[in-house]
Amino acid sequence: MARTVADRLRHQLYLNEESQEEAEVRRELNREQTVTYRETENEEETEERREDSRIRMERLREEREENEELMRAMDAFEHAEMIPLETDEERSHREKILEERNRAGVPRTHRAACKKIESEANVPIHYCGEMNLICEECDAKHFKAERPQYKKFQKCCKKGKVILPPPKECPEPLAKLLQNDHPKAKHFMSKIRNYNSAHAFASMGAKMNSPPGRGPYCFRIHGQVYHNTAAVGTTDNPKYADLYFMDATQASSYRVNVEANGGCCRDLMEELDEMLRENNPYAAIYKKMRQVLEEEYLKAEAENRPHQFVGMIISSDRKNLDQRRYNSPTTDDIAIIFKSVNGKPPVDRDIRGHLLIPSRGRKFIQINPQKPMCDPMTYPLLFPSGEDGWHSNMPYTTTTRREREEAAAMDVEEGEEQQVLDEEEEPDAEEEIEGDEDNDPHRLKRGSGKRKRVTQCEFYSYLISIRDYFNQVLAGGPLTQQWIVDSYVKIEANRVKYIREHQAELRVAQYDGLMDYVSNRAERENKTVGTIHILPSSFIGSPRAMKQGYQDAMSICSKFGKPTFFLTFTCNPKWKEITANIPNYLTASDRPDMVARVYNLKKNELVHDIDRRQV
């Protein structure tokens, strides 16, 4: 027993004398040894280790409780003997000492109390290190402090469950404009939101609420967000997708003459229009729709009959597409063009959940933000090849990276063989080929039971993760800010939708009294009660979440006393971690994702200094 106590004291003295760097090295070595050992142990050893840990912790907890109970009894006995004998001056002195002790706080451990207080001159500047840790599943870059305990990164790809194909190479001249390798790159970046709006197939409608002052650019909105497009060929003032229904020169003239595009360069307008018409499948489907409409007019005139109406259905169904092979859909994948007498789609075609574009009719057509066409139609300069946005049919990837690489190699070989077969016999373009979905070797593996799917938050987290290839989504400056805000609104709207549709599972029956009160009051005032939906406290920003946070803060104050300090921790855009990980032609305000990551790491380190190191 004496030897154990001596070893414990010797170890404690050693820990008190080691520096902060030595402590970090020791913890890292212990962490790696623990991970290595636990990876090699079998299930029986794991269960035995957990049982030993449980017994040891239970014994320590019992000993601690016994010691605390004994100390409380001794303190109470001494206190009972002392209080009746002390004078008023001694009582005042004792209460003053207790007040100062409560205000200063007691160090949590003896080790923290024994450490010497270092002067501010000896405190090094905190540095997160280089962003050189690579995720083994998706190749995303991370800081050392972002690495989880078991080296599987969660935020970029959810430990390999969310794997999206890399985007196609950014076409010219957009790539040079975004990378500051074009004579008009500076002008383009200052007007990038105008250029995107001029070439978009759909609009984003929201009430802009720019912050006051002359600080860095900040995109801020207030209220509801809408995504709209319009019927084509119906107005004298065409906008958005209607501009792709006409030739390029005429479309550029309309774009330049719009008052909101004042200051934009016509040459850039024409170059970007040409780029999108060559690379974007949505531009191709509108061009095809125009050709079908012109052919119908000529045919109707030749046959001396009224022409039929031409419409288009942009499909939102991605169930039959392999997400590994088709990240940029083709024209036939995303749209169907039809002709009818009354302008309505064929009766055998179910258009629920799809986007119907008529050749005339409604002025505005609202796009569901939960559909895959919303992002590429609203942000063509961020998705120039028409890559799909998030949709509800994106399954988790259940294959390992090695299996995916082997499958990709097989796809290349099969693609070469298929190309030889295609040269011999090419099927009709309008022929619809039905395959055996269950026996398709290119489809992702499915787990048994309920099929799990990628959430919106996981999808957008994957897109904004930093990797070695050029990602135009993160190079858009002000347009990137707008897209990130728009994506966040979509995520929140989807969460609210889930809560609205699952009120029964969220146990809102306990609010029946509130509903009865509202109904009775409305009946007395001769008013109609709408549907009541309860936002739980788990939804950040809801009234219940704010009240719960306030009550937690008040509980802390009631136990430990009122706060002594109010700390304000701000971000410095010139921190080395920020400037070293963004291109030199972008500023910190152009990369809110990097600013948020670095700020969060430093904030966590500050909390760790206060909470653990007793700074």
From TrEMBL:
Residues 460-611 form the Helitron helicase-like domain. InterPro entries: Helitron_helicase-like. Pfam families: Helitron_like_N (PF14214). Residues 411-439 have a biased composition (Acidic residues). Residues 19-53, 402-448 are annotated as: Disordered. PANTHER family: ATP-DEPENDENT DNA HELICASE (PTHR45786:SF74), DNA BINDING PROTEIN-LIKE (PTHR45786). This is Helitron helicase-like domain-containing protein. It comes from Daphnia pulex.
